[in-house]
Amino acid sequence: MVYSSKQQIYENVKRSNSILICLPKDPTIDAIAAGLALFSVLEKLEKKIKVMCNEFSLPPQHQFLPKSGEILKDLTSLRKFIISLDVTQTKVEELSYDIKDEKLDIFITPKNGVFRERDVSFSSTNYEYDLIFVIDSPDLTSLGRLYDDNTEFFYHTPIVNIDHNPGNEHFGQINLLDLTATSSSEIVFELIKDWKEDILDEYIATSLLTGIISKTKSFQTTSVTPKSLAIASHLISSGARREEIVQHLYQTKSVETLKLWGRALARLKLDKENRIVWSLLNKEDFEKVGTLDEEDIFSVIDELIVNAPEADIIMIVYQIEKNIIRAVINTPPNIDAIEMLKEFKPVGSKDFTKIVIAGEDIFLAEKKVLETIKNFLKASR
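Below the sequence we write its predicted structure tokens.
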């Protein structure tokens, strides 16, 4: 029998004892929500499960998400190192250890006779986790230090890759990719809906609906499909707390954030030919409105995505610290921002990218990035 990808994933989950869910560095709300929903589902299946995200810090307005406190920052104790001592001929009287000068010394006192080097052997246990889910990540390097520090683990453990972005590199042993889905949360819903009767509860449904609402800007983007609306309806029927989601995502903006929006909108510029909308925020803007939170920049981008339909590329160039100029750029699926902005060593995903621009003048930085974008678009036509 040939299993579909969804069936293969379920069979692997049933065989697994301990499962790790990995989120990308700087995850979207969708990635967080999808990961937490899957965590809750696997808990119901009585699996040992952890969610990991490198250097993760959940913004206060997102702490309403069920199980949000379960996301861990560091991966520890992946494998145990075993020192074995043959006690067939010589028994142990006493065991102690000491750590000195970054060296561990183990002292074993025999009851009779002596221990020799040939009596000692070394080994390692299997990895703690026997299955990995990677959510909303184009490649493994997007996991940051979580992957960099544990590369061997990722090579030796089966990976289920869940994503909806066209730039995904199909790095999993099982790849569940749906380019027509609005979000990774939508894909997780399709994956788990038939795993067990009544698997959905209000907490899982709330997480999944949060991911869909965040990705569609409360169903205002062009990515919304009849399927995504049907899934949202089903989640609400299953107990998803829509009003609470909307309140936390869109109705908790501080006065400082609103003032920052005003300053960004006052400087808004449009390149009709290349369909680029952008704005500038300098250090004085942040100081005058009383916020230095980069999350406020992302909320400005979100507003422009919804309210600037004439734009394909949306960018905010900003400066919070002296001599450090940054930019965040949102692009449609057909434009690879990582490739477009490679000279700036971008980080993020291929549709939402962050860069640092050398120099002290924010206007020169603006000009340099715009020229790079326009040259890329011209070469792509």
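Residues 81-124 form one domain.
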